[in-house]
Amino acid sequence: MTPTASASATPSASPTASASPAGTDAAASLWVVVNKRRPLNPLNYVPGNLVTPKFEDGAGSNANGFQLAKPAAKALKQMATAMKAAGSGTLFMSSAYRSYQTQVAVHAKDVAAYGLAVGENLAARPGYSEHQTGLAVDLSALGQGCNIRVCFSTTKAGKWLAANSWQYGFILRYPDGQTPTTGYQFEPWHFRYVGTDLSTAMHSAGVTVLEKYFKLPAAPAY
Ligand SMILES: [Zn+2]
């Protein structure tokens, strides 16, 4: 079945064959919507299915040993293989799952360096980060530069991912021009796994952000 806008209220289809709860509220759902108005519940949520993706075919690199929820890890490996086959480069994981405690440190560091307003545009408050779901990954490509920078959108890998990630169940979560809705600047490196049912439905509908697809309030600020 195709996920619909009613999924936020009464999920009519499970996004996976597993027993994971569906919908936009449950932290373990592939469709969970986390933003500055929608913290994880519980705030210190830890996914139960974290794995460390390994790219045995050389299509990607996880040199820092980052973790993802199992379905996201499997899809990421498939996407890396396809990206390499397309001649668009070797995927590199720059960040993935971050625990509540890790986010405490990341948030504190960015706020100390840039002040509250700019720092919080870069780093979510603990419990409000999509990285804590295990479904978000920051991607770059070996030797293409622009790691965690807006210019990643101009690299071969950045262009390929923006155009093709939906086929593997990922969405570019913070698109250009959607800051008033998402609360985040354009982040061409940040991809969120939602499963192919939802990514395909959003692609077909031409809706780029979860808040608009599920008719949830915009979340420009805390
Ligand atoms: Zn990210």
Keywords, please?
binds zinc ion; two-stranded antiparallel sheet; single chain; Muramoyl-pentapeptide Carboxypeptidase, domain 2; alpha+beta; 222 residues; five-stranded mixed sheet
Report on this structure.
The protein has 222 residues and is an alpha+beta fold. α2 (100-114) packs across α3 (116-122). Helix content is 29%, strand content 11%. The protein contains 7 helices and 7 strands. The chain is globular, with a radius of gyration of 16 Å. Residues 4-20 have low confidence and may be disordered. It has a domain at 90-222: Muramoyl-pentapeptide Carboxypeptidase, domain 2 (2-Layer Sandwich). It has a 5-stranded mixed beta sheet.
Q: What is the H/E order?
A: EEEHEHHEHEHEHH
Return the structural class. alpha+beta
Question: Which strand order do you get reading across the main beta sheet?
Answer: 2-4-5-7-6
Instruction: Quote the CATH topology of the domain at 90-222.
Output: Muramoyl-pentapeptide Carboxypeptidase, domain 2
How many strands, which pairing sense, and closed or not: the largest β-sheet?
5 strands, mixed
Radius of gyration: 16 Å
CATH class of the domain at 90-222: Alpha Beta
Alpha carbon gap, first and last residue: 34 Å
Small molecules held by this entry: zinc ion
Which regions are unreliable across 5 or more consecutive residues at pLDDT < 50? Answer: 4-20
Strand runs, count = 7
